[in-house]
């Protein structure tokens, strides 16, 4: 059930009639997309290795919640694009009318948002573009100049969130016992860490730091949810669909020889391979009904990130229906990588023993254009920024032979990207 409508319209109001125009621009003008984001303009971003989309301002917005949040957003977007007047001179995925979204992990309370920025700048390869969106025929000029450099958060202190380390390890032990007696095969348990600054945090600061430190990840921000995710839930582009599955993690030491040995150990670890197999299976099963053909590699590869290494598998397929990228993301969520196996049992256990509200952590985050193409990641290595407070999240896959102390260490490693970005 929809709990919000377009900005400026009442609850349940019809989708707005928007006018969008996309023009090509010189890529040299947008070499650093994040540097374009102005202060105080509700920025959005989806950037990887210098390419992607950024935007600011809001031409329209939908807020929704509950188990129908994905359907609400999909219907609103179909209505919005159907009423829009679009002049697209570029014709790339991500041009024309574009929305950015961040969705709750759980059905309840499930606060979720889909926004249409007033300005979007994109870059892909040797092409770049500017999209402006309004409610009339006018399109104001938007000078593309580097904004003032954001200030680092001052006086940041960190405290435990819902549970301290000891209490969280007890929850992990409880989950391991339930898995041992056959209640389920795997459950992903998360914990939070709360950072408090002396004044409101300018989200552009951690965005820039994350993009610089983790260029192989997708650095995102939508409506206060910020992070650098290594996991592509789903990409749909011109009939092709891909999904990157990450499950199975080991912390890096900083010593190259030692890390290579750890990577080899990870690739042979029965515990991590089992966890990874569950996650790949859940993605393939969810995408299968929508694809005419699929490619599921037999073995994962090791993805090296600055702080950790993951077992990774790229699942690919050819879409055989008209479902949008958001529809596919909804079909995939929650995968075993963020929920567990069997998924329904694991999600129920999360609600019973995790003892924290995940909010949008581990939910889909990304963008979609009017043709339904788009990219949706999983909101991992992420935090929720609200004024002076930043709530960081980390999760671990728990299976039969998981060790609570090792899982706590893994969670601490997963806090590092955002924690360092706030420093």
TrEMBL record:
Query: Listed GO molecular functions?
Result: isochorismate synthase activity
Residue ranges of every copy of the Chorismate-utilising enzyme C-terminal domain listed in the record:
166-414
Q: Which residues form a coiled coil?
A: none
Q: Output the InterPro entries linked to this UniProt entry.
A: ADC_synthase, Chorismate_C, IsoChor_synthase
Is Isomerase one of the keywords UniProt gives this record?
yes
Which Gene Ontology BP annotations are present? salicylic acid biosynthetic process
TM regions (residue ranges): none
Q: Which Gene3D superfamilies match?
A: Anthranilate synthase
Which catalytic reaction applies to this protein? chorismate = isochorismate
Query: Might you give the EC number(s) for this enzyme?
Result: 5.4.4.2
Q: Which UniProt keywords apply?
A: Isomerase
Q: Which family does it belong to?
A: Belongs to the isochorismate synthase family.
Instruction: Note the NCBIfam families from the entry.
Output: isochor_syn
Specify the protein name. isochorismate synthase
Species for this entry: freshwater metagenome
């Amino acid at each position: 059930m929809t709990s919000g409508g377009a900005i400026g319209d009442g609850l349940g109001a019809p989708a707005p009639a928007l006018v969008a125009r996309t023009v090509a621009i010189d890529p040299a003008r947008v070499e650093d997309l994040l540097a374009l984001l102005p202060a105080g303009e509700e920025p959005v971003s989806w950037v990887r290795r210098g390419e992607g989309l950024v935007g600011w301002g809001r031409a329209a917005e939908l807020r929704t919640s509950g188990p129908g949040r994905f359907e609400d957003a999909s219907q609103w977007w179909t209505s919005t694009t159907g009423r829009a007047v679009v002049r697209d001179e570029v014709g790339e995925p991500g041009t024309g009318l574009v929305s950015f979204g961040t969705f709750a992990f759980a059905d309840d309370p499930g606060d979720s948002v889909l926004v249409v920025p007033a300005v979007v700048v994109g870059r892909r390869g040797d092409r770049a573009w500017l999209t402006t969106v309004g409610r009339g025929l006018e399109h104001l000029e938007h000078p593309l100049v580097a904004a003032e450099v954001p200030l680092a958060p001052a006086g940041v202190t960190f405290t435990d969130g819902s549970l301290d380390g000891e209490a969280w390890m007890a929850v992990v032990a409880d989950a391991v016992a339930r898995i041992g007696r056959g209640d389920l095969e795997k459950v992903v348990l998360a914990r939070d860490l709360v950072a408090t600054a002396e004044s409101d945090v300018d989200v552009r600061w951690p965005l820039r730091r994350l993009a610089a430190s983790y260029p192989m990840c997708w650095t995102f921000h939508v409506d206060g949810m910020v992070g650098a995710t290594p996991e592509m839930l789903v990409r749909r582009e011109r009939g092709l669909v891909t999904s990157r599955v990450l499950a199975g993690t080991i912390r890096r030491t900083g010593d190259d020889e030692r890390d290579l040995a750890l990577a080899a150990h990870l690739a042979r670890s029965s515990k991590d391979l089992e966890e990874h197999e569950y996650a790949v299976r859940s993605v393939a099963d969810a995408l299968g009904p929508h694809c005419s053909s699929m490619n599921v590699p037999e073995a994962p590869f090791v993805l090296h990130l600055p702080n950790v290494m993951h077992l990774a598998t790229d699942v690919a397929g050819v879409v055989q229906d008209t479902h949008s990228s958001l529809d596919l993301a909804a079909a995939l969520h929650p995968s075993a990588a963020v929920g567990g196996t069997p998924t329904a049992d694991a999600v129920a256990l999360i609600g019973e023993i995790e003892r924290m509200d995940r909010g949008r952590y581990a939910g889909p985050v990304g963008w979609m254009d009017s043709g339904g193409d788009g990219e949706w990641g999983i909101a991992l290595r992420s935090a929720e920024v609200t004024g002076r407070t930043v709530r960081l999240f980390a999760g671990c896959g728990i299976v039969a032979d998981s060790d609570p102390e090792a899982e706590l260490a893994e969670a601490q490693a997963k806090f590092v990207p955002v924690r360092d970005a706030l420093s």
